[in-house]
Amino acid sequence: MGEFARHRVVVLALTGLLPFELGIPHRIFGHAKDADGTPLYEIVTCSVRPGPVRTDADFDIHVEHGPQVLATADTVVVPASYELGPVFEEGRLTDELADALAYIRPGTRMVAICTGGYVLAAAGFLDGRPATTHWSSAEHFQRLFPSVKVDADVLFIDDGDVLTSAGVAAGIDLCLHIVRRDHGTAVANDVARRTVVPPHRDGGQAQYIHRPIPEPQLATTATARAWALGRLHEPIQLRDMAEQESMSVRTFTRRFREEVGVSPGQWLAQQRVERARHLLESSDLSVDLVARDAGFGTAQSMRQHLQAVLGVPPTVYRRTFRAGSGNP
């Protein structure tokens, strides 16, 4: 049997990079393994020139590979840097960076963590496409790149072959999402357990943005969320969730969005999609029974939701990821 061809992830380390973000792809993709324990990704780091690369910490890192290795990438990841110069100030690439990015093959998946999105935008990868970045840079990013459809409320955006994340730790969310997309929930959950992070964080950046609020926020919606997760298979009304917190529907809806970043209805749909994905991958239940247990009611309703979120119907999703996990 020939050697398994692993998906190659090349991480582009730029001057002024954040060491934490540089380590995210290595940690997440490096822990992704199949049922036999075989690594699913190969991770390589490069820079615009081999040698020392300055970080925003009190140490440099030594990068062995130059930009030529970008030509071998299946996925390129660009972490944030605090020294992007004209990329951040004028929205244009330096000649050296443009020459480096020219090695990337057409069709290569492009990923940016935090303000690494400035590099993708300056290179034209985000023209006319949705993207996100750290909430504190979102307005500047939009002004600098008006053709990009910036959404500052989400943790990450998956636009197929181009993916962007919000700040810092959202890079973990995005990389876990990519593993989940490539190899299914079971593999992604295993990586999350090994990394001791949640496999999926609720909501978006809105919950992390400081907004002065005159009255103290003593109540939360955590009890209602836990209550709903325990009965996703049942019809759940907004008033039912509000009652768990002894709030009016209006107050509950406002508080829920402040805490989670999405509406209660959107959150419920997300949780039901995740439940359906898990059942499709890990059980032999029929599509009708999965739809019932995930709370969609009908297979048609579940099919519409999964098609919208995943781009494929339930049967195709199950066939793809059951086969990928080695299950029958």
Describe what this molecule looks like in 3D.
This protein has 328 residues and is α/β, with parallel strands linked by helices. It has helices at residues 19-30, 86-89, 95-101, 117-122, 138-144, 170-183, 185-195, 222-229, 238-244, 249-260, 264-282, 287-293, 299-310, 314-325, and strands at 7-12, 41-46, 51-54, 60-63, 75-78, 109-112, 130-131, 149-150, 156-158, 162-165. The strands form three sheets. A six-stranded mixed sheet has the order 2-1-5-6-10-9. Strands 3-4 form a two-stranded antiparallel sheet. The protein has a two-stranded parallel sheet with strand order 7-8. α6 packs antiparallel against α7 and α11 crosses α14 (314-325). Residues 209-218 and 324-328 have low confidence and may be disordered.
What brief labels describe this structure?
disordered C terminus; 328 residues; single chain; alpha/beta; 10 strands; six-stranded mixed sheet
Spans of at least 5 consecutive residues whose pLDDT stays below 50 are 209-218, 324-328
Task: Count the E strands.
Answer: 10
Give the CA-based shape. globular
Individual helix count: 14
Helix/strand-derived category reads: alpha/beta
Report the C-alpha radius of gyration, rounded.
21 Å
What is the share of helical residues?
40-55%
User: Could you describe the largest sheet, including whether it forms a barrel?
Assistant: 6 strands, mixed
What would the average pLDDT be, to the nearest integer? Answer: 88
Widest sheet: strand ordering: 2-1-5-6-10-9
Order of helix and strand elements from N to C terminus:
EHEEEEHHEHEHEEEHHHHHHHHH
